[in-house]
């Protein structure tokens, strides 16, 4: 189970699309849904609304604004079980999407071969073939 601070960060990263590439389009959409659930839950709470608006406008979240949102989320999740389940479910889906994307991006197969010419300090040409797929170097 993710804590409220992690949930707030996930939601905000999706809104500003500044997650450094770790969020897929599907995860970004879910993070936006999460942020909108925050907006709906805290509608009428001027301090939280202002903090969210400021963060969106600046595309970064000040520590005070983040702390306010985290504590408000903590309180809301403690007092509204259905809201807490919805938030945790969305956060879990985003996290699964991130993990799925990172596993897919780590699979990389390459078959490459290149000839490289080196010259030693006497001007003699030393040709090497580098087979990147096997990690071998052959001198000719």
Write the layout of secondary structure elements.
Elements: H1 4-16, H2 25-41, H3 46-58, H4 63-79, H5 81-105, E1 113-119, E2 125-131, E3 136-139
Antiparallel strand pairs: 1-2, 2-3
Notes on the structure:
With 140 residues, the chain is of the alpha+beta class. It folds into two domains: 4-105, no CATH class; 109-140, no CATH class. 61% of the residues lie in helices and 13% in strands. The chain has five helices and three strands, in the order αααααβββ. The protein has helices spanning 4-16, 25-41, 46-58, 63-79, 81-105; strands at residues 113-119, 125-131, 136-139. It has a three-stranded antiparallel beta sheet, with no helix packed on it. The longest helix is centred in the middle third of the chain and has 25 residues, at 81-105. The relative contact order is 0.13.
Number of domains: 2
Helical coverage, percent range: 55-70%
Order of neighbouring strands in the sheet with most strands: 1-2-3
SS element count, helices:
5
Give the integer mean of the pLDDT values: 77
Number of separate strands = 3
Shape: globular
Distance between the termini: 58 Å
In the predicted model, the low-confidence regions spanning at least 5 consecutive residues are 105-118
